[in-house]
C-alpha cells in the first residue's frame, strides 16, 4: 500500500488500541503490522514512530510497546527500549493495558492515504496552503507538536536558533507564546517558534534565557533559582549573541510574540 506515513500510523493506531483491549492480554509482532499496512517487518518502525512520539508528547502510556520482535519477544531497537529490563517493560505494558484508549480519538484520523505531515509542510512552505488549512489536520497537541517541530526543522535548516547545534534528535520545537495561550493556528506558526537544542529549550522555557526585541539572547537572572543553575545558564549563554534566523524573513519570530514573552518573563 503506497499510502502516507500518517495514514499508516492511523491504521496501526486502531490495531494497537484493539490489541490493548484484548483479553487475555495480547501483543503484536512486527510482521502483523507489516501485513496490516503492506510492506516488510523491517520497515514498520518508521510508521510506529509518529505514534510513539504522540504518546510521549501527550504523556500517555507507550502504546507502541505492544509491538514485539518475534525472535527476542521484546520491543525492537527503533523504539529505544534497549535500556529497559523485562520487568520495566512489563510495568509499561500493564499501563498500556489499563489505559482507557477508547476515550481518545485516533490522532491521525484526519489523514487520508494521500495526506501527510511532510506534504502539508511542503504545501505551506511553497505557499500553496495557509496555516489555517493545515491546522485542521492537527487538533491534538501530540500531532500539532510533531508538525510544528518538522516545520521548524525545515525553516531553521536543522540548527538550534541559539547555538547552531545540529543533531536532529536533540532539536526541539519551542513556542514563544505558550501552547496553552496560542490559537490553533499560532500553535503551528513558524513565527511563534524557535528550533532549540534540548538544553537551550529548557532554559528558554524556564525564562532563564530570554530573547529581547533586537532578537538578542539574554540571561534573565530573576528566574534563576540556585547557584548551580546560574553556573549552567552562564555556560549555556557563553558565546551566544543574536538568534540564528531562517533565511526567509517570513519565518522569523514575530516581534509581538517576543515582546509579550519578554514582558511576562521579566515581570
Ligand atoms: Zn542550542
Can you describe this structure in just a few lines?
By secondary structure, the protein is mainly α. The chain is built from 10 helices and 6 strands; from the N terminus they run H-E-H-H-E-H-H-H-H-E-E-H-E-E-H-H.
How far apart the termini lie comes to: 54 Å
Q: Regions with pLDDT < 50 over 5+ consecutive residues?
A: none
Helix fraction by DSSP (H/I, runs of at least 4): 40-55%
Written as H for each helix and E for each strand, in order along the chain, the element string is HEHHEHHHHEEHEEHH
Number of strands: 6
Percent in strands: 5-15%
The strands making up the biggest β-sheet line up spatially as 1-2
**Which structural class do you get from the secondary structure elements?**
mainly alpha
Q: Which molecules are bound in this entry? A: zinc ion
Counting structural domains, the number is 2
Q: Please tell me how large the radius of gyration is.
A: 20 Å
Mean pLDDT value? 94
Shape: globular
Number of helices: 10
Largest sheet: 2 strands, parallel
Could you explain how this protein is built, in words?
With 267 residues, this protein is mostly helical. The protein has two domains: 5-103; 143-265, no CATH class. Helices cover 41% and strands 7% of the residues. It contains ten helices and six strands, in the order αβααβααααββαββαα. The strands form three sheets. Strands 1-2 form a two-stranded parallel ribbon. Strands 3-4 form a two-stranded antiparallel ribbon. A hairpin with a 5-residue loop joins β5 (209-211) and β6. α1 (5-21) crosses α3, α3 crosses α7 (141-155) and α5 crosses α7. The N and C termini lie far apart (54 Å). The model has no long low-confidence stretch (mean pLDDT 94). Zinc ion is lined by residues 160, 162-163, 165, 196-197, 200.
Amino acid at each position: 500500500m503506497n499510502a502516507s506515513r500518517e495514514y499508516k500510523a492511523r491504521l496501526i493506531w486502531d490495531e494497537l488500541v484493539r490489541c490493548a483491549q484484548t483479553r487475555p492480554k495480547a501483543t503484536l509482532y512486527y510482521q502483523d503490522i507489516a501485513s496490516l499496512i503492506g510492506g516488510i517487518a523491517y520497515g514498520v518502525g518508521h510508521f510506529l514512530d509518529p505514534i510513539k512520539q504522540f504518546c510521549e508528547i501527550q504523556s500517555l502510556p507507550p502504546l507502541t510497546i505492544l509491538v514485539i520482535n518475534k525472535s527476542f519477544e521484546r520491543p525492537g531497537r527503533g523504539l529505544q527500549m534497549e535500556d529497559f529490563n523485562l520487568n520495566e517493560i512489563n510495568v509499561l505494558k500493564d499501563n498500556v493495558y489499563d489505559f482507557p484508549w477508547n476515550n481518545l480519538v485516533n490522532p491521525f484520523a484526519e489523514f487520508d492515504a494521500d495526506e501527510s505531515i511532510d506534504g502539508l509542510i511542503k504545501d505551506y512552505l511553497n505557499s500553496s496552503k495557509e496555516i489555517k488549512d493545515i491546522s485542521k489536520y492537527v487538533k491534538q497537541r501530540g500531532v500539532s507538536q510533531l508538525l510544528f517541530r518538522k516545520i521548524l526543522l525545515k525553516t531553521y535548516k536543522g540548527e538550534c536558533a541559539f547555538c547552531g547545534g545540529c543533531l536532529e534528535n536533540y532539536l526541539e520545537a519551542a513556542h514563544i507564546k505558550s501552547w496553552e495561550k496560542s490559537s490553533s493556528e499560532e500553535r503551528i506558526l513558524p513565527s511563534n517558534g524557535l528550533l532549540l537544542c534540548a538544553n537551550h529549550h529548557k532554559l528558554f522555557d524556564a525564562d532563564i534565557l530570554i530573547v529581547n526585541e533586537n532578537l538578542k539572547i539574554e540571561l534573565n537572572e530573576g528566574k534563576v533559582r540556585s547557584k548551580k543553575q546560574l553556573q549552567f545558564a552562564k555556560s549555556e549563554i557563553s558565546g551566544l549573541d543574536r538568534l540564528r534566523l531562517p533565511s526567509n524573513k517570513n519565518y522569523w519570530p514575530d516581534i509581538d510574540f517576543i515582546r509579550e514573552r519578554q514582558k511576562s518573563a521579566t515581570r
